[in-house]
Amino acid sequence: MPKTHALLSVSIASILTVSASCSSSYIPQRNGKIATVMKDGQVGYERNGRFHSHGLLGGGLVDAVRGVPAAESAAKTHRSRSGWGLVSIVGGLVCSTAALSYAIGESYEEEGSGSDQAAIVSLACLGVTMVGTGLVISAVPYRFDAVNIFNDSVQPTGPVYLPGQAPPVVQQPPGSY
After folding, report:
1. In what order do the strands lie in the sheet with 34-39?
2. 71 within domain boundaries
3. Residue 52 domain-assigned?
4. Which pTM was predicted?
């Protein structure tokens, strides 16, 4: 039993260490555009100095792109697909586990004719889980689209450099460092 407690303690300490290290101190320029950032271990969006946490299903993205209809539409599609995908994944896994448990229980009985049908239901539920996974995966491009559409709608506030151009280098007088 003491080994179990030690293993549990090490596991919890590892999880806390990893989650505490998921942060960044970078603060993007406040130019009206959205930057994707990590703050206190959460993925979110920085817009004009205000942090919008992404949230479980992406509700923060909808708030961050507010004001640009095309970006809002993409963000809502991302949130919808993420939500329905998560519901399908969890529901499919619960259904599959319950059906598989029933099939195993039926297979031990003498006249267990329901085990084949329960196994088929379990496989169908796994299919629902796969569809949910596909929905979650297909939501990701809409997340990027929402940010990019929003950023493309914002007028630049500073000098614009074409690809391959670099901003001018300002020479410092000697000894002014």
Report:
1. 34-39, 42-47, 50-53
2. yes
3. yes
4. 0.68
